[in-house]
Amino acid sequence: MSGVQTLKVEPSEDGSRVDRWFKRRFPHVPATMVQKLCRKGQIRVDGGRVKGDSRVSAGQEVRVPPLPEPGEKPARPTLSAEDTAFVKSLVIYEDDELIAFNKPAGLAVQGGSKTQRHLDGLLDAFGTGLERPRLVHRLDKDTSGVLIVGKGPRATARLAKAFQSHRTKKTYWAIALGVPKPKQGEIKGFMKKAGGAGGDAERETMVAASHGDPGASHALTRYTVVAEAGQKASWVALRPVTGRTHQLRVHLAAMGHAILGDRKYTCDRPAPEDLDRRLCLHARRLEIPRDKGAPLVLTADLPKPTQKIFDTLGFFANEIDETRVEDELA
Q1: Structurally, how many domains does the chain consist of?
Q2: 53 and 107 share one domain
């Protein structure tokens, strides 16, 4: 592999996107590698971090990290026995098309500038090459619950299309500060990204926006209050009809009922005392359409720390009618 290089942008390359500049200079380097190197801050322009779609100007200097030689396959770190056992312990369902995990809070789905251990990197435990599972959708690092990966390119493409066309149904459980009123309804509006670092979604922030604002996207969430702990907190079931970054967290905070433990999207209501301050947001249920037969329905149990908070507030999953909850979210 080559060492670190510093290359100057030529006048003919003025205005090029970083990823396309790399493609012309190093055609053997996959676009996915370029994006990953940008996220990690290993590709820099005049010493600053950039994204794949950033533009370069003539005369700027591009830091190029060590790259594989043409024909050389980049080495992948070998998973430890502990990591292999860990990721396999998260599996809650598997068939010929997909693997479903109950992702724990704190485990990122993808790598970022400060994230070395993540679910995507652990998928080598299930195969390599075309046999290696591929990500289909995402969950925030601090959100727990159902997450699926596709087995092979064809299955991954079909599953990704189901998410993109909103044919999947997702149900999240959250503990909200206070009690939303009305107790059942919709939250909708426009939101946009307010910034981030190196394309790292975990460090991005979403803000309210108006229709027509640059980068604004419409977001719609259905919700229903499942149970209440006085006026201090409530158990809320949520269905994101759209799939924007941090959508559920932004919407509940905008109502004045932020999710317990959310330090990014807050409200003026105090949190109940003596509760673990982890983000109490859990992807409870995922319904996936199948080409033949009934949809596949996957559910993930609450992680033990979150279950403890639910118990402390008097919220017991075995005492609710989940069918009724699903009907209220439909």
Answers
A1: 3
A2: no
- Looking at the fold, whether 148 and 115 belong to one and the same domain comes out as yes
Full-prediction pTM beyond 0.90? no
Tell me the pLDDT of the chain (330 aa) as tens digits: 568 999 999 987 888 899 989 988 988 888 889 999 999 999 999 999 999 999 999 999 999 999 888 866 555 667 899 999 999 999 999 999 999 999 999 999 997 766 778 999 999 999 987 788 999 999 999 999 999 999 988 899 899 999 999 999 999 999 999 999 999 999 999 999 886 544 455 667 999 999 999 989 999 999 999 999 999 999 999 999 999 999 999 999 999 999 999 999 999 999 887 787 789 999 999 999 998 889 999 999 999 999 999 999 999 988 999 999 999 999
The per-residue DSSP string of 129-154 comes to GGGS-EE-----TT-EEEEEEESHHH
- What CATH number has the domain bearing residue 35? 3.10.290.10
Query: Does residue 183 sit in the same domain as residue 298?
Result: yes
Active site residues: 140
Q: What is the DSSP string of 72-127?
A: PPPP-PPPPHHHHHHHHHTEEEE-SSEEEEEEPTT-BSS-BTTB--BHHHHGGGG-
What does the angle CA 190 – CA 193 – CA 196 come to, to the nearest 5 degrees?
165
CATH number for the domain that contains residue 153:
3.30.2350.10
Parallel, antiparallel, or unpaired: how do β-strands 217-229 and 233-240 relate?
antiparallel
Strands annotated E in 5-97: 5-8, 44-45, 48-49, 61-64, 91-94
| Same domain membership, residue 141 and residue 204 | no
How would DSSP label each residue in 274-317? T---S--EEEEEEEE--SSSSPEEEE-PPPHHHHHHHHHTT--G
d(CA 117, CA 109): 9
- 270 & 191 share domain: yes
